[in-house]
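Entry 14. Ran structure prediction on the chain below.
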Amino acid sequence: MIIQLSSLTRCFGSLTAVDNLTLSIPEGELFGLVGSDGAGKTTTMRMLAGVLDYTSGEAKILGCNSRDLTVVQGEIGYMSQRFGLYPDLTVAENIRFYADLFDVPAAERIARTRRLLTFSGMAPFTDRHAGRLSGGMKQKLGLCCALIHTPKLLLLDEPTNGVDPVSRRDFWRILNDLRKEGVTIVVATAYLDEAERCDRVGLLHNGRLLACDTPQNLTKLVKSNQRAPSLEDVFVELMGEQELAVPQPSIPQPAEQQPGAEASSPAVSLEQISKHFGNFIAVNGISLTVPKGQIFGFLGPNGAGKSTTIRMLCGILSPTSGKGSVAGFDITAEPERIKENIGYMSQRFSLYEDLTVEENIAFYAGIYRLAPDKRSERTEWVIRMAGLTERRSSRANELSGGWRQRLALGCAILHEPSIIFLDEPTSGVDPLSRRRFWDLIRTLARGGVTVFVTTHYMDEAEYCDRLALIYRGELVAVGTPDELKKERAVDGVLPSLEDVFIGLIEEHDRT
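Output, structure tokens:
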């Protein structure tokens, strides 16, 4: 066995992060590890990599005790959630550094680098510094660096978080090729469609292994008369329906219309907006309109221009050319008025890790200049909405991804804005937390709030009223999910949104 775990346990003070885990993984297996936020996936991966010691039990990796993997360290590849990129090095230099680190032969290095750059779509950006890449592009560069050598054991902790569907598909092709070469792969993932591609899947919850089997056998655990159950159905079933049934407070109506914004005017209006960074064109002549109260999905591969567009809409970046308005205010002339009347939740949740739940809320209440009586009311509302009544004194870095996500949303809508911008808000969050989050989004929209959201989850894109696809800075398609699928139907058969997404990109490349 490549991995042999027996009653493996890891405690952090009174918290048991991994509880009595027993598991064997043979050579050449592609093993998926899934679980809710805070289930113990990352702790398990760190113990497998030998970077975290265990409290009790036993762990043998490639025949060695994981307390000392010095002898086999060069045979283990490990990509953590925060992969070690060097921001002052270019894309090519980062890859070269890791190739040197693992003594990759020159001939193999050239071929493998070319292949990795092609699959990741990073080939045009080899001279760009890592610190100037978008979040998704950094994740893809981390993948390239992790895969530059061929280890006996490859450990990947949520490697495709924030990575677009095209690159995820190509990434899994590479994993399958590595498996054929005999590499043993353990991948922790929040994407249940990815877990279905694994030979076996282990489901962790509260540090315990609830189930471990092939995806096909796991789906037999759920009874369904309407359709074949998916791994997500299994996940929800085993987690318990009570986690989905946490009472949600009613979402307040949006704030009264601000002066300068007529009732009939759209929430967002752009006309030929462009943004250049030197010779690089990040956004190229985009025009679109978003009515009030709509859930508008903004899709596109990593580096397509989504985050740049949102930052212009939020008054953070000034456009190079074109014009537009948000909440009735000009994005060039009135950026500060826009900031006062919107909510913005970035890819990194916009929280201060060393502040407690209440301190983060107080910080944003100060930014939005909420009156003292209003501040107290809204603070309690956010805490109830986020399900953090018992964790109000906990630091943000102590919260699971789902809790931090809801807290960040609460901070973004603390001042009851009429428009909220959500930039990949559910990246890396487990299916239960994503469902609860989208319940909140839909409730906000029913109350008249306009929601402008980017996502790489195509099942989430189905929830949107309208979608726009941006690629290489240009708007490729706009329409409802059904309209976009009907336009690419073959013999009356509707494609999936992911097929539409990939097809439009490939078509754009050909032209």
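The first strand starts at residue 3 and ends at 12. Will compare against last week's run tomorrow.
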